[in-house]
Amino acid sequence: MSLKTVEWKDNSVIMIDQTKLPNILEYVTYTDYNQVAEAIRTLVVRGAPAIGVSGAFGLALASLQSDATEKNDLISYMENAKKILFETRPTAVNLAWGLDKIMEVANEASSVEEIKKNVVAHAKKMAEEDIQINMTMGKNGSQLFNDNDTIMTHCNAGALATVGYGTALGVIRATKDSGKNIKVIATETRPIQQGSRLTAFELKHDGIDVSLIPDTAVGYSMANGLVDKIIVGADRILRTGHVYNKIGTYQVATMANQHEIPFYVAAPLSTFDMKSNPEDVIIEQRKGSEVTGIGDKKTAPDGINVINPAFDMTPPELIAGIITEKGVAKAPFEESIKKLFQAN
């Protein structure tokens, strides 16, 4: 089994601390929802599916932390916890999805004891389902890749971005498991280096052939025929097929279009936002220090202005297909995405 990013054990949330990778594989244990919120904010845990489940686990912890004796008081305590957890990463739609699901379960219960029991059980079920969904998505996507393909990926959409197995890397794993020989090119993914620290780490950990490139070598790799196909994950996908993913994805997709290389996205249905329009989506802006240094080493002058968006938007016309657990959506996306939800 590949790495397990987040799990519930003995009324605690256990996570891999992804800020320590690739140097140390360290697990942290949380018993307070505020600690989980901080872990999401500081990228101890990241990746849309993983933070969706982490948010659900955080709310389950909140239900256990509360000393409320009446249902309404516990719901109110959990609503406050939900707000704190949601504000940590506003762009990834899975977080809101995970929190909303747990609040639904809490509201349906009739007593304080029932709320606590049901929300813990439901959060654990969500974690188990995440792995199953990723494996199904992997199978669906593996049919799009050929023997001896070299596949480029950006950021980390692997086991570390989910509870386990992964979305984009889940498709890569399933392709390899189907007996095809594949190689992977991972972009380093500045400024947090999710590609070099996480994707390269987990693919190497699982014995998959991976080469690392600087973000600036994407065009070079494609122009020199080193890439057959591309697959990335997503933090939010609109009903129109607009994809929000790690900053730099739009550049990779544009370059792929220029070189006529198929560009695929892999994400579960929980990543789809069927209500918002592109102008409604808030792009998270992160602190400038992520760009002005690496660790303790300064790489820019003091007092420099920094623009540091965490995500960008890739328009549907650049996307060959969106791989989900219910099948692959292709253009026209509005129709094919709607069909996937009807099949759900």
From TrEMBL:
Uppermost EC category: isomerase
Site (Transition state stabilizer): 155
Domain of life: Archaea
EC number: 5.3.1.23
Residues engaged in binding substrate: 46-48, 89, 194, 245-246
GO BP: L-methionine salvage from methylthioadenosine
Family matches, as Pfam families: IF-2B
Keyword Isomerase among record annotations: yes
Tagged with keyword Signal: no
Record field: catalytic activity: 5-(methylsulfanyl)-alpha-D-ribose 1-phosphate = 5-(methylsulfanyl)-D-ribulose 1-phosphate
Xref: SUPFAM superfamilies: NagB/RpiA/CoA transferase-like
Active site: 235
Molecular function per GO: S-methyl-5-thioribose-1-phosphate isomerase activity
Record's keyword terms, sorted: Amino-acid biosynthesis, Isomerase, Methionine biosynthesis
HAMAP family found in the cross-reference section: Salvage_MtnA
Family, similarity comment: Belongs to the EIF-2B alpha/beta/delta subunits family. MtnA subfamily.
Role summary: Catalyzes the interconversion of methylthioribose-1-phosphate (MTR-1-P) into methylthioribulose-1-phosphate (MTRu-1-P).
PANTHER family membership: METHYLTHIORIBOSE-1-PHOSPHATE ISOMERASE
Protein name: Putative methylthioribose-1-phosphate isomerase
Organism: Candidatus Nitrosopelagicus brevis
